[in-house]
Amino acid sequence: MQELKLGFAPxxxxxxxxxxxxxxRRLTRKRLEALGISFVDIDDINEEGLLYDEKxxxxxxxxxxxxxxxxxxxxxCNFGTEYACARLAKDIGVPVLLWGPLDERPDxxxxxxxxTQCGLFATGKVLRRFxxxxxxxxxxxxxxxxxxxxxxxxxxxxxVVKTFKNIRILQIAPRxxxxxxxxxxxxxxxxxxxxxxxPIPMTELTEAVKAAKAAKTEVAxxxxxxxxxxxxxxxxxxxxxxAALKVAMAALIEKYDCKAAAIxxxxxxQTELGVMPCAANALLNDKGIPVVCETDIxxxxxxxxxxxxxxxxxxxxxxxWTIRHPDIANGELLQHCGPWPISIAKEKVQLTxxxxxxxxxxxxxxxxxxxxxxxxFDGDNGEYSLxxxxxxGVDGPKCMGTYLWVEVDNIKRLEAKLVEGPYIxxxxxxxxxxxPILYEACKYIGILPDLYDPVEEEVKAYLRGE
Length: 466
Hints:
Blueprint: E1 6-8, H1 18-34, E2 39-40, H2 54-67, E3 71-75, H3 82-92, E4 96-99, H4 116-129, E5 135-136, H5 145-164, E6 168-172, H6 186-193, E7 196-200, H7 202-215, H8 217-229, E8 230-232, H9 236-255, E9 260-263, H10 268-273, H11 278-285, E10 291-292, H12 297-310, E11 316-324, E12 331-336, E13 349-352, E14 362-366, E15 371-380, E16 383-393, E17 402-407, H13 411-420, E18 426-430, H14 435-445, E19 448-451, H15 456-463
Parallel strand pairs: 1-2, 1-3, 3-4, 4-5, 6-7, 6-9, 8-13, 9-10, 14-17, 16-19
Antiparallel strand pairs: 11-12, 11-18, 12-17, 13-14, 15-16, 15-18, 16-17
Helix pairs in contact: 2-3, 3-4, 5-12, 5-14, 7-9, 8-9, 9-11, 14-15
């Protein structure tokens, strides 16, 4: 993952203490450095390193654009200059973090040096007037745990936004005929969100597989990795096909400068190669390159967003909602033929045959339990939203493929959302609570966050530092 860079533009207002504002600019800078956060400052713009003047603001715009910042941080080191902040944020066009250090006790004469909280109220209003979405980090001290948490969460939000604005997906063949649920509107995705597809025919993939086999080296390495990390229950030539497919897809993703892929996983592929692509998908998924099944473009978009929200700490998995748990009232089976990354398995994976097909090349393993976020970007009739919520892994009957039994708060409520739409039977999960990150990111990418549990106030409370 590329390092994210903040534009650090601390601000002051003339009628409050300039020396105190300079002091807090310095202290905030030191705290960012201690937290290892990459930022671009404005110390070369004026002697104070503070935003308050229009001519300086124009220089800051130029500098931040040249530096290609991913987010704008506006510490109010005293009251701040609200119109300068709003103009800057409007011109830069990246996510905005609004914060100020907690005010001190007035001195014995009743003098207040900064009135930071009051200035935050003013800037929030003016940002709204400018129609600039922003994230608010509660008025707190630099050493408060909520400051560090808020900054790191904001960086994750910036990562989601940056990812969403630069999506290009390799589409390997059209969707399978029977999967009408995975159709998408390619033109609308491009026009509204700049989401680009790179469609290729199945023959281009099979030719790339032949080229990978001819080159031998990378395929041999992949076969060695498979034998070391999987319990192999298929033939050697089939293992070679799985390895070559992984190498071929990686090469095509790089060739078309894509971040993810969606593959028509059956049944033309089996006619050509004699294997399922599941294990090859899993190998790429473990590298943080999502490859999803059944040419589900919306599923690939979801996987990219979830991976970005997770900040590389764990891999995501692409799943079907399948059946209710036979023993747990709010339990559900998440499963797919075998494309989940092996790093999330609770046991050694088997490279074997899937549940519904005679061809080899899928994985079987139960995923680790624990808290998971479940998510789905989808839309129809011109409206798009992001379904999201939490679940926890639970015990259940043994299954084939890659699977995880989960328990949610209310399966009937979730089930109704999936049936009534705009969602389908596919989702993406990750072993981390990224619901607040994705919820907050929605305000910047222009889609509706759709929580499948009534926890919006809890999410907002977390985001405001409670």
